[in-house]
Amino acid sequence: FSAAVEADPGFALAHAGRALFALFQGDGATAKTAVAEGRKLAAGATRRERQHVEALATIAGGEGARGLGLIEEHVKEFPRDALLVNQAASTIGLSGREDRESYRVAFVEQLASDYGDDWWFQSALGFGYHEVGRYAESRRLSELSLGQYPGNANASHNIAHVCYETVDNAGGIAMLSSWLEGYDRLAPFHCHLAWHLALFELQSGRPDAALAIYERDIAGAVNPRLAMIDGAALLWRFGLYDFQKGPLPWRQLADLAARVTRPGFVFGDIHAALAYASIGDTAAMSALIAGLEALDAKGHPIARSLVLPLVRGTVAFVAGDYAGALGHLEPVDGQFHRVGGSHAQWELYEETMVACQLRLGRLDDAAGLLRPRLAFRPSPRDLAWMGRVGQPS
Question: What is the pTM of this model?
Answer without folding.
Answer: 0.92
